Amino acid sequence: MVFCGKCGKDNPMGAKFCENCGATLEGPTSQQPQTTYASGNWLSREHAGFLPRFVAWIIDLIIFGVIGWIVSIPFGTNYGYGYGMGYDAGFNLGGIGTAITALISLAYYVYLDGMQGATIGKRVMKLKVIGTNGAMPIGPVPGFIRWLIKAIPILNLVAYIFILFDSQKQGLHDKIANTFVVKE
């Protein structure tokens, strides 16, 4: 395969021009990792501001509200429906439902942000998480760091306030994990 330095597409061996953008190819080079795109391809994109990122976060929050509610029912940790009215359900194992929901959240963010480049909310808003070096997807470690910061409520609030005032539109979680959120 011949890697196009302009758009990041892998082209067949012997190709003189990129099938995607038409750029002249310089000949065979070592094959680039499948998960990393050319730096200019993602780093040149406009950074997403507060509002589209906030809407994406709300979408993900709704998804987790439903998941948390479903997971909590069999463990007796759901107090949203019928609390104090004799509608107690489950085995009242308390924190187990919370722990399971946290693990599902961890898997969701690390896999989707870290390994796929966007959560469902970000996909709806047409956003991608990229590394400050242009890598996309960013990998599981930066995905975990982003999740960890956002899992702590006060840090999540601070993270989103950072977006409003940062010239690169990075939240606290972006700065620590060396990531940007860009528009597709």
From TrEMBL:
Q: Name one Pfam family in it.
A: Zn_Ribbon_1
**InterPro entries to which the protein is assigned, alphabetical:** Pra-immunoreactive, RDD, Zinc_ribbon_dom
How does the record say this protein sits in the membrane? Multi-pass membrane protein
GO annotations of cellular component type: plasma membrane
The residues covered by the Zinc-ribbon domain are: 3-25
Which residues does the UniProt record annotate as the domain RDD? 48-178
Q: Does the keyword Ligase apply?
A: no
Q: Could you tell me where this protein is found in the cell?
A: Cell membrane
Transmembrane regions listed in the UniProt entry: 54-77, 89-111, 144-165
UniProt KW keywords: Cell membrane, Membrane, Transmembrane, Transmembrane helix
Superkingdom of this protein's organism: Archaea
User: Any idea what this protein is called?
Assistant: RDD family protein
Q: Which organism is it from?
A: Candidatus Methanofastidiosum methylothiophilum
